[in-house]
Amino acid sequence: TVPIPTIEPETRIHKPNYTLKQPNPTMLEISIQGERFAVESQFSSPDGKWNRGSSSFYEHSRRIEQKDEAIVVFDTFKNTSQEDVPVMQFHSCVASGGEVQAVWLRGLHVSAGSYHDPANPTTYAQTQEAGIGLVALNDEFRVHVVNSYLKKRAELADKSFVLKAKGTYTAEWAMVPVAAPDPSSRDGGIGTSFWNFVNATRRLMDVNFTLPYQFAFIDLREDRTDDFVSNFVRNRSAHFVSPIMLTERDRSTSFLEKGDHATCTKWFEQLRRVAPDLIVAPYFGCFLDPTEANP
Asked: Is 173 exposed, middle or buried (0-12, 13-18, 19+ CB in 10 A)?
């Protein structure tokens, strides 16, 4: 056997050589080592119009913050009406020079498509000379996000937001420029550039950290030996576990009156006996539906 290599996120900053211009309030032009990308934004309003800025229903303003590895955009909407206003936003990117050679949506290499995946709210497009990523940052944008590549346009969108009456909301998103790929790599550098984008985005979002505690669900519905429990905890480096409950009812407040307390007590006693330092707690799920499982 050979040693298993350790693969971990790149933490060093790699500042790409880019320039940024803003021809108008809702357009940004990025030049990355000679490759030009244009990112244009538009926002819907209830009268059926698409607006490149404010409308009769809301005021729009934009602030831009340039960082070493990203351009962060803050789009603020102020509702000027007395009613809730639905506002869709689209940020569309085209390569002004070279053809897009590869696209990743929500981390998957695709030829085209449109996806909703809050866990990975990213769009990345790569030409021969450079690449650019679009990333939703704030919670609301991430929950609503749609990542697309259609008709040679890489897009980041929110089709679900409603701005409350007289309310103010700021959508935060970023453009991540990536330098030219290394042509000597196995795939001509295309995949390498995607991972450069991933690493730059991780640094932007400050998510390169080690979790101090590990959680796991453990299935004790069949009789498990002490050795099984001990190996399970050790192999998963678990500090905190929850047994998988018998039924949906046992994962809700109904458990207090109707749950199988005796069985759960037996499980908890076994876990605490085998692994005294383990944190053990029941799993509780509460959703907005009228079933007995989730009152």
From this structure: buried
Separation CA 114–CA 122 (nearest Å) = 11
CA–CA gap between residue 44 and residue 65 (Å, rounded): 24
- Measured CA to CA, the distance from residue 36 to residue 284 in angstroms comes to 51
Amino acid at residue number 239: H
**Residue that the structure tokens 């000679």 belong to:** 34
In 99-147, which ranges are continuous DSSP H helix?
139-144
Contact 291, 253 (CB under 8 A): no
How far is residue 107's CA from residue 195's CA, in Å, rounded to a whole number?
10
* Spatial CA neighbour of 149 closest among 173, 174, 175, 123: 123
- Written as one letter, the residue type at 273 is R
Q: Tell me the percentage of the chain whose pLDDT exceeds 90.
A: 67
Spatial separation of the C-alpha atoms in residues 75 and 156, rounded to whole Å: 13
Residue 3, judged by CB atoms within 10 A of its CB (0-12, 13-18, 19+), counts as exposed
Distance CA 131, CA 194 (A): 8
The reported pLDDT for the residue numbered 185 is 53
Instruction: Give the model's pLDDT for residue 256.
Output: 74
Phi-psi category of residue 103: left, alpha or beta, with phi > 0 → left and psi -120 to 50 → alpha:
beta
H or E stretch at 29: strand 27-32
49-80 pLDDT, tens digit per residue, is 999 999 999 999 999 999 999 999 999 999 99
Q: What angle do CA 63, 66, 72 make, to 5 degrees?
A: 55
User: Is residue 233 pLDDT above 60, yes or no?
Assistant: yes
Beta partners for residue 64, in sequence order = 73
* Contact status, residue 144 vs residue 158, Cβ threshold 8 Å: yes
